[in-house]
């Protein structure tokens, strides 16, 4: 086993295999240790700038100009708080969120939570599939439905990247994030949106009409994703930190800073996309052709937004950024799916098989919609997938809030209570908005329906029964009393069973399937 000196973060081999390296943080307290923690936050931030985010951002800017920018600000702030809680849960307890769910809930609730989490993975993968298909269409004029089929080959690209190790993969993803950021920040400079209107949209909340509410929920669902909570709590376990009070607090602080930096970049990208779309599509000198594109804007029509920067190469540049976003999102989706399966079911599949199965489930609806509805239908499917993610968020968020409330007690009691109250307020607002939209939209659908009264009543009974089950499920998670945890914040450097190096996490990150039970 490789040991670390006091000069900085080192790699430690936990099995003697050169590929199975775990990043080890030195015992000494130093700002240099921060570099050992860089990586997980940028992998997580990809979910904030995936093709689903681009689609909803483009439509928000085209339809409502800068009016929905405040949703991005709120979602980013809420995301930072929630993601930091997920990271803290993994750091302090030595287990990720899915493992806590398996330990806490009985078989039936645990299985249902796993099913919901898997649906979230598929809903997250749909925008990646369609976004990659759009990118291939822009680059090589490949039909959308063929591009959807070709996205299955991205598994091979993922496997090729994994063999170089998690550290290089993290740097590659960070490079892609900054590449996308530079692209849209440059376009933001050339599109010259009104700074006063942008600030007004950022800090003055407004929702004009039910359409704006639905799009706002899509923006929220595309930003704060349920699978990200499972992912972040597991990614932090790839670092071996000092198991002392000081070491754990330092890790939590550095992960907060690292997540803040990554999500700040993602926030700027989202603001740039909405601002560019809002400025271009609401310009007074817009050509009739571009105005028609703005009325039904999707990823496959958005390349004209970059035309005044790079001319005829606009579609190619936008396609490269979109392809980078889709493929980097595939990496995080594969990791999240593997952690979820391992955590809930104690079952591990080799990542290529896991990626292939998930991708097939996402390809089927994407292919059907692409064949029937074309690029416009595929674009609408991205919005629907984002809304599904928003509705499923409580089933990951509530367990996270419950576990962090009862298992993590760091700092003073007052600070802990304040943080817990803040996170519950954020979670309550997100769930309240979702529930309001479901009830109001379904009610309006029934009122304005042209079906016969008997069918309206029948659909109403089924629909409201489903809503009642949805609310009852959330209430069960909220009010169910969790088991008490033992002392988790060690006062010495001694390791317990839960704080030993996580070989299952290391193996999954390097494309291997561990057959041993690390718990």
From TrEMBL:
The chain crosses the membrane at residues 34-49, 69-91, 111-136, 142-159, 171-191, 211-231, 252-276, 317-336, 356-375, 381-401, 421-439, 454-479. GO terms for molecular function: metal ion transmembrane transporter activity. The keyword Zinc does not apply. Its main location: membrane. InterPro entries: NRAMP_fam. Belongs to the NRAMP (TC 2.A.55) family. This is Metal transporter Nramp1. It comes from Brassica campestris.
């Amino acid at each position: 086993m490789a040991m670390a000196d006091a000069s900085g973060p080192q790699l430690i081999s936990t099995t003697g295999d050169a590929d199975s390296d775990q990043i080890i943080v030195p015992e000494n307290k130093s700002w240099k240790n921060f570099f050992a923690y860089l990586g997980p936050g940028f992998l997580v931030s990809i979910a904030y700038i995936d093709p689903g985010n681009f689609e909803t951002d483009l439509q928000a800017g085209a339809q409502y100009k800068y009016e929905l920018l405040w949703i991005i600000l709120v979602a980013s702030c809420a995301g930072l708080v929630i993601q930091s809680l997920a990271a803290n849960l993994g750091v302090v307890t030595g287990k990720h969120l899915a493992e806590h769910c398996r330990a806490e809930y009985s078989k039936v609730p645990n299985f249902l939570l796993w099913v919901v989490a898997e649906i979230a993975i598929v809903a997250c993968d749909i925008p990646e599939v369609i976004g990659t298909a759009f990118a291939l269409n822009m680059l090589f004029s490949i039909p959308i439905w063929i591009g959807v089929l070709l996205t299955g080959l991205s598994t091979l690209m993922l496997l090729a990247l994994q063999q170089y190790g998690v550290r290089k993969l993290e740097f590659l993803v960070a490079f892609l994030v900054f590449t996308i950021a530079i692209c849209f920040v440059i376009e933001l400079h050339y599109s010259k949106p009104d700074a006063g209107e942008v600030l007004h949209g950022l800090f003055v909340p407004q929702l004009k009409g039910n359409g704006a509410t639905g799009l706002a929920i899509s923006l929220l669902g595309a930003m704060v994703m349920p699978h990200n909570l499972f992912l972040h709590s597991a990614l932090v376990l790839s670092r071996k930190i000092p198991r002392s009070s000081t070491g754990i607090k330092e890790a939590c602080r550095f992960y907060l800073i690292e997540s803040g930096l990554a999500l700040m970049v993602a926030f700027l990208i989202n603001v740039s996309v909405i601002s560019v779309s809002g400025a271009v599509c609401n310009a007074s000198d817009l050509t009739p052709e571009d105005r028609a594109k703005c009325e039904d804007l999707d990823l496959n029509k958005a390349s004209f937004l970059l035309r005044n920067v790079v001319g005829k190469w606009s579609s190619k540049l936008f396609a490269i950024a979109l392809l980078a976003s889709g493929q980097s999102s595939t990496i995080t989706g594969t990791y999240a799916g593997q952690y979820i399966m391992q955590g809930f079911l104690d079952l591990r599949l080799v990542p290529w098989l896991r990626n292939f199965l998930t991708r097939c489930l996402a390809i089927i609806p994407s292919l059907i919609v692409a064949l029937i509805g074309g690029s416009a239908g595929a674009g609408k499917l991205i919005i629907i997938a984002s809304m599904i993610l928003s509705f499923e968020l409580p089933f990951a968020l509530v367990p996270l809030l419950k576990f962090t409330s009862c298992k993590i007690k760091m700092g003073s009691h007052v600070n802990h209570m304040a943080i817990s109250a803040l996170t519950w307020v954020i979670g309550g607002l997100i769930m309240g908005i979702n529930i309001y939209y479901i009830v109001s939209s379904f009610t309006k659908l029934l009122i304005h329906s042209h079906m016969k009264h008997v069918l309206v009543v029948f659909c109403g009974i089924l629909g409201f029964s489903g809503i009642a089950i949805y609310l009852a499920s959330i209430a069960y998670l909220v009010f169910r009393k969790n088991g008490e945890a033992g002392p988790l914040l060690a006062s010495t450097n001694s390791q317990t069973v839960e704080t030993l190096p996580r070989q299952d996490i290391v193996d999954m990150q390097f494309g291997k399937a561990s057959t041993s039970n690390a718990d």
